[in-house]
């Protein structure tokens, strides 16, 4: 299916959509803008990959913000699973496992969040569209304004609880030998020179910086395995690696890139800097 793990090209996806006998693929649009929360849903309404469903970062992939826990806490998992079922997603034969393809137009920023969530729930058949919506449109492929019908799937979650850590675990383990904490935000935010979103600037003491946008090209395509391997060359896969960002969204891009370059799934600190700094106020 894909040349690299969990990644598909537009020509492959186009051929799958064109195959009328293919009932085991679900496409999900995750376009979103942190600065303009309605933009993604408006873009979806204006035109999307044929047959794609839409999931919104704020409404579907997160739950309401609390005093602590970060700006994008995970959703109520049972409600989220109900949404997956309404897309006709199955976990096992005879109707599954359903192949899921996710796309955005933000260099995997939101697609990777959903990719990680589905993997966390135990669904392996999930990939991101390389280049996203831009690649689809550049290839001259058709768009649709139709909204797919509600289906009935049978998604069976198999949670991976050891894939996440909370603030207590980060505080306790971050300075231990063999533990590496990666901050996925821009270098300026990591250094505390600017902070456009959260009330406090800075980063977790001892963390290193690996900006999430470094793993894709400017056109939103994943860099080669050789480039990614070089990018992560200073990391020992046997170390305990904890990845965070502002609120557990773009950290998933780095986790995706690590897996795509041969690393195991490392740990996510979902609350990120927005959770960490909430205890500094």
List keywords for this structure.
5-stranded parallel beta sheet, Oxidized Rhodanese, domain 1, Sulfurtransferase, 9 strands, 4-stranded parallel beta sheet, Thiosulphate_STrfase_CS, alpha/beta, 10 helices, 281 residues, single chain, transferase, Rhodanese-like_dom, Rhodanese-like_dom_sf
**Overall spatial form:** globular
The total count of helices amounts to 10
> What is the second-level CATH architecture of the largest domain?
3-Layer(aba) Sandwich
As residue ranges, the low-confidence spans are none
Query: What value does the Rg take, in angstroms?
Result: 18 Å
Can you write the helix and strand succession as a string? EHEHEHEHEHHEHEHEHEH
Q: What's the mean pLDDT score?
A: 95
N- to C-terminal distance: 48 Å
Helical fraction: 25-40%
Query: What is the CATH homology-level superfamily of the largest domain?
Result: Rhodanese-like domain
Tell me the count of domains: 2
Give the SSE layout.
Blueprint: E1 7-8, H1 10-18, E2 25-29, H2 39-46, E3 53-54, H3 77-86, E4 99-103, H4 111-120, E5 126-129, H5 132-138, H6 167-173, E6 179-183, H7 187-190, E7 208-209, H8 225-231, E8 240-244, H9 251-260, E9 267-268, H10 272-276
